[in-house]
Structure formats: structure tokens, C-alpha cells
Fold these 4 entries.
Entry 1:
Amino acid sequence: MEERYGSLADAGSCLPSIGILSLAAITRQQGFPTSLADASALALNQAELIRLIENDPPDILGLSATTFTISHAAGFAAVAKERFPNLVVIIGGPHVSAAPHETMKRFTAFDIAVIGEGEESIIALLSALDAGSAMIDIPGIVLRTDGELVSTGRRRFLSDLDSLPYPAWDLLDGFPLKYPPAPFKVRRSPAASLVTSRGCPNSCIFCDRSVFGTSCHTFSAEYVIGMIKHLVDNYGIREFSFEDDTFTTFKKRLVAICQGIIDLGMNISWSCLGRVNSVDRETLEYMKRAGCWQISFGIESGCEDILTTIHKNVTLKEIESTVTLCRNIGILSKGFFIVGHPGETRETLSQTLDFALKLPLDDISVTMLTPFPGTEIYDRAAEFGRFDSDWSRMNLLNTVFIPHGLTREDLQFYQREILKRFYLRPRIIIGYLKRLIANPSTLKGLIAGGRSFFRSIRKTV
């Protein structure tokens, strides 16, 4: 947690990876004996993981990693292969999908990389490994052949997500209590996260769309309602966090999900991500009736020119209108802000500070612009500033990109100043006290989160 969240470790999330759970569900469904461990959520170190797999040694080790964790995954893979010389290691996840050849060249402990959606590729791979047959005709992978890296090209996206089994929550040790969300993110517990769509049609310069692409494909409303009911009935889940990039994009499906929750009379609360130009009064009122209490919006900047530069395709007026509408309807709103955009200046940073204070938001997150592999800004970083491309430092908190004309200290000052000036206001403090009164069980989490907040506004990252 300390490595991932720095001074915000106490406010970090331990929710499990839906990607890992989905792959485990499909491999098990197809008859392959499957075990899983979300090492990141459980904060397992390398030695603990080795002891875990020694109890039931696998033939094949599948790992999923982000850019920040790819070196950890490679280190673990190397140690595991020393312990089990015949082990085959398959790497997947967003990082290797964005930079497959560079990753495989750098980390030789990975035998095969799965690129993009993994469900069909992993089944084809396991079947070929079982049969001892060639893998060169399996689309969606990069493998080592005669000392060379060979790519088999991209696999088509799944046409029917509803054909997939529900994620394998039952394979998680201690789910759901061992996997709490960030304390600021929930009203009730136990809680779970869901991803109900894949792909993003937007073109933000800082986002990587290597895994699921730029077109959206979704689970049906009926499937989503089934997952929710399954988690409520079998695990007692009372709070949901929808982590889709595009949960609010498809109004008809969104309304159908809300109506399904209402019709079943499920006593749940939930939050989601949304875009300010994809919701209206009617939709928000439906969402509130169905239990939605908070929507998180990517606001990014308070400067119109910066929004244009990063291809956000929203305006300051749209942002203010939607956030105000949420407040009027009674849904809390959280704003995601980024400092250090291409073209950023002290003036634009001051505009972002002023805009964050002007909006009727209830929560904010302020991160550093991070040019991840697969993003437009990764390829153009030198055009706009100085870039430290060390993958192991890319956690959204470290200052790895500094726009021309600014310093590291400038960015760190404004990050802390936005957080400090936003939260140390009577309206925000009173809002948190009201939440605590409404649900006293959140006291421990709020204390931990508050402790992290005060550390973060003092600490230089």
C-alpha cells in the first residue's frame, strides 16, 4: 500500500482486480483447475506469494500487472521459475498490452504475453500447452520462438460479453471482508466493485486504451442486475462501485439497470464514474432512486485551453452545470484533477485551483500527469516537457513529467495547495461529519483517510 499510494496509503483501496477474477472464472469453467491470489489487494510480498504457491504448485503461472507493478511481477516470476523450473509464466494486463515487445525484451522471466482481452486467448493457450501443440496460430499473444519474439496480432474483441461467467469471487480468500475499498469511497460495507462495460470512445491524451480499445462493448442490463443480485444474495454486499469508464454513456442501458435495482427492491447503495456530458436531470434522478449516492467526474483542469490540448472534449460550463445539477438532485460529486498537463503554467494551475474551489464538489482527487505507455502523451512527452520514463515510478503520485517552464516544486506545491484549500473548508468538513452521523461504522475509515490526507499535504512526493 505504501508503494502504491505513498502518503495516502491509509486511504487506499484493497478492492480485488475484476480482470483476474474474470480470467479465473473462464479457466475454471473450461475445466482447468484454477487458484488465484490478488497479491496487490492483500499486500502479499514476494516471499509470501512463493509460500502460497508452494502449497499447490502450478504448471502455469498467470500474472496481471500495471506499469507501476510490472517490475514486481517480473521479479516474482523469476523467483518462481527458479523454485519451479518447468513453470510457464503468462503475463497480461494493461502494461504489456501497451508495450508488449519492450516488456518481453526487458523481462525474460515472462514466457508468453497476452495482449488485449484475455478470456479467449488464455483458453486457447492452456489448451495448446495441455496438448503440447504450436501456439503461433493463436491470435492476441506474443511468445518466444527460437530466441525471437513473435507477435500473432490482435484478437477481435468479444462480441457477447453476456456469454462470460460471473467473476470468480468465491476463489478469493476472505472475500469480501479482506478486500475493503478506500474509506472515502463507500457509505456501507461490505462492498464490491464491478466493471460492466469495456472500451472507451473518448480520446484523452493521458489515457491508455490498449486493452479494450476505443469502441464500447457492454454487458446487458439483465446480466448486470444478475451480478448484483448474486453478490447481494451470496456475499451480503450492500455497496457497489461501478468502475466502468463509460457507465453513464448508454442512457437506455443505465436506466434499465436502475429500474432493475428498483424493481428487485435491493437495499443497496452505489457510486460510479461518469462524464459530465453524458448525464442529464432525468438520468440522475433515476440513478438516485436506485441508490446512487456519488458520481466521480474527470475534470482534470480549470483551464479551457488545457482541456482542448488534452482532448477532453468537455467545457468548463458543462462541468459546472453537471456538478451543480448533481448537488441540486442530492447526489454527491467527486472531481478528478491532474496537475502537469502539456502546456501547463503557473497561471493554468491557479485557474485549476480556483475552479476546484468554485465547483460544488464534495470530494476531489489530485494526481500528477503520468505519461503511461500506450498513451498519446507517452509518445509526445519530449515535445511538452521533461519525462522520466522509469516504469517503476509511474503511480500517478510521483512527479515523472514536468512541463516546459515549470519545476517539480511548482507541481508539488499546487497539488498540495488544491487538496489543502479544498478540504480545509467548513462546508467540506461539515459534509464529512454528516456522513459520519448517518453511518457511524465509517469512523475508523474516515480517521485513517484523514490521517493520510494530513500526511499528503505535508509530504513532498
Entry 2:
Amino acid sequence: MSDSLDGLLLIDKPTGPTSHDIVQRVRRASGLRRIGHAGTLDPAARGLLPLVLGRATRLVRFLPASPKSYRGTLRLGRVTATDDETGELVAEHAGPLPPAARVTEAARAFVGRQAQVPPAYSARHVAGQRLYRLARRGVATEVPPSEIEVMRFDLRATTDPAIYEFTADVSSGTYIRALARDLGRNLGCGGTLASLVRTRIGPLEIGEARTLPGAPDRQWVEQALITLDRMPLTPPAVRLETTESTRRFRLGAAVPPAGCLPTADLLRVLAPDGTLLGIAESRDGLLQPKVVLAAVPPEEPDSS
């Protein structure tokens, strides 16, 4: 077993625990403190949750952030405080619900770039505080909208006229709860998210994710880990040709490329043997280190 665990761990998060709960379980299993996640999932949602371990925490911003794909169900005729079924009921539609043809047509109108107001109960920061913390204290907050893009929002009617199954492809930062809320608002009957599964983030798919066993250990984490060299980072790769260039890059010095540089501001730099050295900026024909993945000693086990 290796002394240090560095890389990407794809977890199929179950409904119930928070994303932070999953991080804590992997911390206890691996003995590592440096673990983060790329893309929060609400407790009521399940699906793909990428975790980054060890030195990979420095690379999380270079992982693909979108498009994100989801499937789930939404319920028309209800409005809740959280925009999903876990929240307090705020209003319930008394009249007939709109016909399926009108609902699916209204959903198609959401495809494209738009401004979206995040749910009141969300992890978005406003004035340095999480929205859900303000909402729990009863603090009314004006939430600025965010620019998002919806590539697909397809609905399918079920035998229950209030319940629709959906698939959605969206940009990073999009709240599916808010899509259900706004669809219901546009239809005049209200809407909430009933269930949600995240199936994809860029090239990462739920079929590659692992279900956490009841008592995972360090060996399980190591076997499930996608190593640094195999992480699907967005910058294109460039390989150094000499050990001297590798040594200088690891020391933080700019080095010349072996050939023509790919057309990109940021590049993934590999040693001659394919080992990932870090991320560099392409500047004046040189590779200027931005993130250097120097070898690190093993961490002491986390006692939390």
C-alpha cells in the first residue's frame, strides 16, 4: 500500500448524508485530513460526488465542472420553503393542474442562457454567509441571480398528473430545485423537486462511481482511487523531455517546452515517464509553473 493517497475518488452518494458527511467518512477510512469534494449534492439527492484526496485538492479547480447531468422527478401543485419535498409546505394549488402538453412546452422554454435566483436554502454565499444559515434564522435576504445555462430540460408525464420525470443537462452553478420552482411558478400552480440523481459531470459518469461500504478502510480507498496521472483535468498535456527540465520545474522555475505548445493558457505538465508534475501557464514561449505537485511525506492519521 502506498504511503500517500493522492487522486480522485468517485462516490455514488446515497440520499440522507450531506456531501461533508461523505468527506468525513473517507477521512476516517483513509487517515487523510486533506480531502474535499467537487460539486455539492443536497442531502436528499443522490448520485455522482467526486472527492479529491491529498495533493489532488490543489487540482480541483482544473477538473471539468460542466455540463452536469441529472435525472429525477418534480411535483406540480406545491410550493415549499426549500423548493424540494424536504421543506415546509408554503402553498398548495387547489385547482386543476395544467395538461401535460402545456407542462412539457413550458419546460422547453428554460433551455438556453438565463439568470437564476438560487433557493433561499442553499450553500450560496451572500454578504459572507451561507443562504441556508440566514434562512434558518428567518433573515429575509435579497439574493442576486446567477448566470446559468440549461442545455436540456426534458419532461415526461407519469400516471400521476402532479408528477413528472425529467432529465437535465446544465452548467455549473445551476440549481435543479430552482428549475422545478420556476417551472411551477410559470405554470401558475407551483412546483417542487421530488427526487434527484446526478449522473454526470463532464466526462465523469455515475457508472464509474463507487458505493461506500458500511465500514470502508484505507485499502478500499486506495483500490478505488483514480491516481493523479489519470485524473481527467481540463488543461491539455505537454511532456518534458529531460530530467533537468523536470528538476527545474519541480523547483518552480520556468522551462522551455520540448516542441510547440498547445494553444491554451494553462497546460498539464508531465515528466518524461508520464508522471504529472503540475499545471503551468504558457508565457512567452515558456512553461511557467502555477501548481507544482512536489512529493510530500505521508500524513499522520486523522484522529477525528
Entry 3:
Amino acid sequence: MTRGLSLRARIAAAAAVAIVVAVALLAVVVPALLERQLTNELDRSLRGRAVEVARLASATPALVTEPGALEGRLTGGALFVQVVDRRGRIVARSGGLGGRLLPAGAPLRAALRERRTAYGDDKLGPDPIRVYAAPLGALGSGSAAGGAVVVAGTTSDIQETLSSARRLVLLSALAAAALAALTATLLSRRALAPLGRLSSGARNIERSGDASERLPAPATRDEVGELADTLNAMLASLERARESEQRFVADASHELRTPLTALRGNAAYVARHGADPAVLADIEADAARLASLLDDLLALAREDAAAPARGEVVAIVELVRDIAAADEDALVIVQAGAEAATVRAEQVALQRAVGNLVRNARTHGPDGGQITVTVGLDGERARITVADEGPGLSADEAAHAFERFWRGSRARSGGSGLGLAIVRAIAERHGGSVSADGPRFTIELPAIRDLSESRRRNSAASLSADEGSPP
């Protein structure tokens, strides 16, 4: 039912309900405590009046039956007193009773038969009363000796006070609920106004489709301000991604146009002049270049769209040795500084990344030069470094080396300019990074810790410490 209500209405309703529930609990607790307090006060008054009568009956028993003796000169108050003998016959009673008699209920029976005091609730005509009965001493010559004194007080005032308290609590609950709903509405309207502006701004951006626009930032630096900053940062990221996509499409179109133009020209030549070995070789080279470019574009697109890699446990040294053994066109030397280095990776993707670095070294290094692949561990990072014997990249070139379609000043023709970009995409998807320093290109990946090796090192450290400690 609340799905159709606005957030402002739900906040106001929740505040009103919370106040009503809280005041309802007070409506139960407060009258109960008030009733207990007033009843205790009345009980103390009844007991005090009974003690006075008992002292009077013990000291001067003849005065008990005198007119006005039971009218409460000492304690005052509208209390009714009735004195009975040991058989329950009335000896004296206060004038406030008129022609009425206090009921001979359970408190009186407890005082006469069990000789103990007792409280009880009863009625005097239509009026509710609180009754207290106490036994009188059996010694003495008075008619009340061995009897009991019964003192009662009306509880109508208590009930009226409780009814007034309940009405007051109920009215307070209604007033508090209305005030809470009004206050919550005003506060939520003020607090949600920036959200309304954000929503309006988001709708405008959705209609225009322009990621360069930004949402209005509220003046307050609260959660709404943080949300606006986050959304604006997301828009900035989308804008950068769109610009990068547009550049990528433009660069890809340009790169694809070159071999296609050459293919069309050679095809037109063949159509006019017939087959020529040189032209057929050019067609074959252009087709191979186009196929390689398309393969790199697809690989890069797959890396961009793929989720973070989970993969399997891969032994880096074995993977690098397989790549070196498969490359028959270059002298690839593998230096294993950490034979047990393992990572969690997609083996095919990691093979492509390392293979791209080896092909890059073969392409840009000197003819017949040696390519060195070094595997090492640095803390919790595994490193794969591929180096050739050429001059390598300058610091400025190294900063752009992994950009898409980038080619250095000494680059040879035929490359797509995507090989190193693919290496970076694969490394980052595996939680790692890639860097260039002169002729050295390094992939860093999170290494899998060898727990058995760690235990051996810890044991060795503990043993050394024990041997070095004094006896």
C-alpha cells in the first residue's frame, strides 16, 4: 500500500506512527504508576486512621462510642470508620456513613477470625471504596475489646484523576502525532529538495544524452552532496569513456582504411592487367595485416567487456618457457629468479600478454638480438620482464607506449599499435599493471603465496632464534 506514497509522505507517516506508539505506551504506563501511587497514599491514610482508633479503644474505650470520636480530628479527610466487637456487631461508626454500613467483606473477616490486618476493594452503595480492617486488642473492658476497626475511603477521586490523565495523554498523543507529521513533512521537504533537483537534472541529461553535463551540487555537504559528487564523478567517467570510445572508433576506422584501400587498389590492378606475382604478394600481405588488426581489435574488445579474471593457478616459469620454445624466429632466454612463482590467471590471456611483449621485443630489437624474459617475486607481486638489446623507449615514449594505436618514432611499419594496449588490458583485468623502462617491459601480477614455503621460513627463523638464545 505504501508503494504509491511519496518518500515525504512515508517519512511523515512513520514519524506520526512512532509518536503515537510512544505516547500509547505512556498512556498505559503513566496511569498504572499514578494509580499505584494514589492507592498507596490512600492505604497509608486508612492505616493511619485505623491506628488512631485502635489507640483510642485501648487507652479510653469509653470514648469510642462517644459522638464525634470517629470523625478524624487528627487525620482529617473523607474517611469512613466503623468499629465492631468480636462477634462482628457494630459498636460505633463515623457520622459520614449516615444510614449506610461498611460491608463485612474479606478484610473484616481476616481481622476478626485470623487477627491480622487486610486491605480490600468493595462498594458502598454505588461508590467504589478501598477498605482496611485491623484487629483491636482483646484486653480491656470496652465493648470493642477483641473486635476490629474498619476504615474505608472512596476511590472515585482516584478514578476521576486516572480518567483525566488518560484523556490528557490521548490528546497529547494526537497533538504530538500531528506536530510530528507536520515537522517531518517540513524537514523532509527541505531535505529532499536537493534530491528533486538532482532527479530533474538527471532527467535533463537523460533526454539530451550529453554526458558532459553535470548535476546541480547542493550547498550542504551531507549525504545528498556526497551523492551529487559521486554521480558527477560517474558522469565524468562516462564522458571520458565515450571520448575514448570515439577516439578508438576513429583510430580503428583509419587503421582499417589503409589495408582496405591497398586491397581495393591491388584488386583493381589485377582486374585491369591480370594477375601479377608482386601484386598478389601485396594482396596477401594486406589481407594478413587486416586479419591481424581485426584479431587485435576483437581481443581488445573482449578484454574491455570481460569481468575481472578468476582463472586458475598458473606457474609463470613454465608458461614463459613454453612461449620461448614456440618462438623459432628469435633467441629467447628465460631467467627464472623464482621457480615457484604462481599467479591466479586465465592462462590463454596471460600467454597472449607475454607473447605480445616477446613479439614486440623481436620487432623493435636488433636483428638476431637476444630477448631475455626474467621471472621474479617482489613481496606479494610476481614480475615478468621482457627485454631486448635495442635502445628502448625514452621516458616520454614510455608514458604513451600502452595507448591504443600508438607507435613510436622508430616503429617499423606493419604493426597495429594495439599489442601493448592488449597487454595492459590483460594485466589490469588480472589485478596487475604493466610498465616500460627503456627496452624492458614488465608485467606485475598478484602472486599466490606458497604457504608451505612460509612455514619453512618461519620454522627456520624460530630455530635460529632458539639457537641464539642463552641457555
Entry 4:
Amino acid sequence: MKPFREVDTPVVHFLTGPECQRLVNACAKDFRNLVRGALVTGCRYGELTRMRSADFNAEAGTITVRLSKAGKSRHVVLTDDGRQLFSDITAGRPPSDLIFRRDNGAQWLPSQQQRPLEAASSHSRIEPAATFHILRHTYASTLAMKGVPMGVIAAQLGHSDTRMTEKHYAHLAPSYVADTIRAALPRLGAAEETNLTPIVSRA
């Protein structure tokens, strides 16, 4: 028997805006900035925990990843929120100081991130529990859904080319096909009309 084609197509899980906010609010103080950093940069846990104050360029609005998974450095462009976050954290800190530290001043070590992230996910009712990989997917998926070119997303994530980026995120991007289908296909009675208004959780 031959396997179905495309069965290995990845299913990307990402958080919505309200889920991101609930997760951040549920994090302990020293861990909260680390999660915020992941959401505004798309960086991996190891990349974040190695960042130092000198890696943040306030004037350019960028953060430098000195050593990535691919062994290359890259400059990640920050939004206004990202620039403000890194400005607040690094204010008055020496250039060699780690940006993200624990409350006791120690460095975040490998495998120390998942337990607090699972606790925050449980408290904020996020299932499955968030991981830093999901936070990275959230960053990239949000950019894709806003129509950011795959090449730009690949550069931000540190991918060597767009193949991996397109494999994970191209289906989320606005497209001529999707716009045409949604504009042309009439209502076929699949969804019942109702005057009920859904209740949005404020958790």
C-alpha cells in the first residue's frame, strides 16, 4: 500500500490575540518578559536566553541573534511594541548583561521553560499547552495572515530560504484563490441563521 501524498504536511498550531494576552498575564514576573520576547521576535528559547543588552539597537529598532540554529547571525526587526519591551528591559543595564534573567539574576537554562509555560497555559485555559515553538508559530502565522511576503518572514525566523516558511505558513496568507472563492460562493444553507449573539469569554 502506498501512503497518501502530503500526509506529512505540518499542522501549525498558533495562538490568537486574546490567547496571547491571557498567557502573558498568567506568567510569573520573570518569565513574562521571556514570553513577550518570543511573541514579538519569533525567536527560539535558546536564542532569547543568550541575548545581551548590546544586541538591542534602540535607534534601528532591531535585536541581533548572534547564534541561531543554523549557526548564522541575523537582525530581527521589532515593532513599536517590541522596541518598547526591549527598551524597558535593558534600561540602565550594561551591554554585556543578559536581557532575560530569572528573578535571582541567574540565566535561564535549557529545559527550564516548559514547566512555567505549562502552568501559565493551564491557568489561562489554553489547550494544548503552549510551547516556545508554538509562540514562534504564532509570530510567523500572524505575519503570514497579514500578507507579509514569505521571504520577509523567512528572514525574520532565520530560515536559509523560503521553502520551510512556505511549507508551514503559505496556506495562511491572503491569496487570489481564497478571495475569489469567498466572494463568488453564495450561502448554501450550511450554516443556520440565528439572532443569538455569542458570549465572548473575558478570561
